[in-house]
Please model this.
Amino acid sequence: MNELLDYFYNSGMTQANIHFGLFDHQSEITITGQIDSEPSDLDFVIEKLRATQQPEVEEYYEDLLGLRDDEFHVDVLSALIDVVEYDFEDNIMTLKAIRKHH
Model:
């Protein structure tokens, strides 16, 4: 996720809307935002993103970070966040994580 946000930020997008869709058999992330012009390397990036998935890479990082699908580890995430704001009202949960550029 961070790699995608970095790509958009480095391409000139300063504000983005991010939508997560969590379904039984897949998860989706949609990033939308305004940018002055199409990045010159967009075709290359899309081609790389469409490459064959490598499950062994996912397993490697899960082992390295100690992550499992049935556990929620906030330790790694909290090391990267400066401020967290949250709200739960009328059955709507909002969480905003802020990382300051130092």
Observations:
- Residues 55-65 form the longest helix (11 residues).
